[in-house]
Amino acid sequence: MALGGTDLNLLVQLKVLLEVGNVTRAGQRLSLGQPTMSAALARLRRKFNDELLTRSGRDYELTPLAVELLPEVQRAVRLMSRALQVEESFDPVSSDRTFRMMMSDYAIAVIHEQLVARVSALAPCVRLQIYPMRPNLPFSDRVLLDYDALIGPRGLGFPGESRALWRDRMVCLVDKRNPRLRDGRLTLADLAELPHASAAFGPTDLTPVDRVFSELGVNRRIEVTVAGWLPLPFVIEGTDLVAVVPARLARLHTAGDGPLAVAEPPFGEVVLAEAYWFLPDRLADPAHQWLFARLDEAGAAVSAGAA
Predict the structure, then answer these.
(1) pLDDT of res. 210
(2) Domain hosting residue 46, numbered range
(3) Model confidence, pTM
């Protein structure tokens, strides 16, 4: 079907190419071979007199024109589908779709079991690709184009719309033999004098832990810095280091007769709120509606467990 000399199939191909930013994955989404998608991209480049997708290492980036085009193309395809009474559908039982998600290491540790179990039970051929969160991610305008959803902590300035998943409280984690640990407790003076291990998420990102120490006027003596929360328990073991970590992560490392101990923080409750982010246009896609429902269920199951 053509309109004004333009093949409307090309409009759909343009939408998917710009959404996934990759010729091969766009072809997989549309069940078309790479030569067909490469030919479509060549036609689109001639039509717009713009590269649209440019190589950046092993990936592609959208040109400035492509970034401007994407929401308009998404809206046009949605309106065209309604006008032609063509409803997109998604059958989880038969679909072999691949969903790409980016998560913090802590989020992977906490929610992956609940999420994978639900997806596997309802959609045996659907695949999940989970990628670790990159440094400086909030400053990337491509992240929600490259991924179907992003899971991480609130307060870091991620773009797009978000939905809450679960909340966690922060606790102190130390080796059981730490001489400052008395009756399972640490004082604020202990935290000021002990060496710390700290999680970093980027050069300008403040965590809830950073904020509370700043408000209390405590200048932490940080001796070890790691990327994300997950490595912290491993660097603390056998040392005098202390780290302030999410309680659910601490619980994973203090079950049974292990070497680490949890101490309630002497500065009151500090909350870490986890959520997932997505492009608003994803809500018009039945496949994304299904995925987000599974995320909501998994988040509710995590919330039902004690923090």
Answers:
(1) 81
(2) 2-83
(3) 0.73
